[in-house]
Write a structure and sequence with these properties.
The longest helix has about 40 residues, at about 95-135. The protein has a domain at about 1-90: Jelly Rolls, CATH 2.60.120. Helix 3 (about 95-135) packs antiparallel against helix 4 (about 140-160). Strands 1, 2, 3, 4, 5, 6 and 7 form a seven-stranded antiparallel sheet that branches. The chain is an alpha+beta fold. About 50% of the residues lie in helices and about 25% in strands. The chain has helices at about 55-60, 80-90, 95-135, 140-160, and strands at about 1-5, 5-10, 15, 25-35, 45, 50-55, 65-80. It starts with a strand and ends with a helix.
């Protein structure tokens, strides 16, 4: 990252921060995009112009739970210190409680998505292994292989849809 005043510039695919890092800033996107990826490799979302990311760690008082990566065209973002964000939230107890609740739900949702993605990877691998073991000379085996191949294709489409990377 190149840093000038409070503006960070990341090259395409450069890591902004990694899951388990201690948070130092939140980020307001000025140009480009940031990819948000679970520890298991699931693409959770993409953050673009005028959107904030990295704030959940401060609000929830936790280390980073996801990895942020600069998008295909890089990323330019304003780095926002935690005390600025916390001061704003402390001014309004209702807003603070609402934001904490939403951040907790988002974190829980990310965790569940990662577990489901891993389950899909496991099932896909088991189906592939099973197909490889079936005796293709049997008529029933060929029919079953056709059906299982269809399931594998559906799983692959779901994996693409959810951004699951093997």
């Amino acid at each position: 990252m190149k840093l000038e005043n409070d503006i960070g510039v990341w090259e395409p695919q450069e890591i902004v921060y990694t899951a388990s890092d201690i948070p130092s800033y939140s980020y307001l996107v000025l140009e480009g995009r940031a990819k948000i990826v679970s520890p298991g490799g699931l693409h959770l979302s993409s953050i673009g112009y005028n959107e904030l990311f990295g704030e959940a760690s401060f609000i929830l008082g936790k280390n980073r739970t996801i990895t942020a990566i600069a998008g295909e065209n890089g990323l330019t973002a304003r780095l926002i210190k935690s005390d600025h964000l916390i001061a704003k939230l402390n001014q309004d107890i209702f807003l603070s409680a609402l934001v904490r609740k939403l951040e907790t739900r988002l974190s829980n949702s990310n965790d569940k998505a990662d577990v489901l993605a891993q389950g899909m990877r496991d099932i896909s691998q088991e189906i592939t292994t099973f197909i490889d073991r079936i005796n293709e000379r049997s008529a029933d085996g060929k029919l079953l292989i056709g059906k299982l191949n269809g399931l594998v294709k559906e799983f692959e489409e779901l994996k693409m849809h959810f951004g699951i990377v093997d």
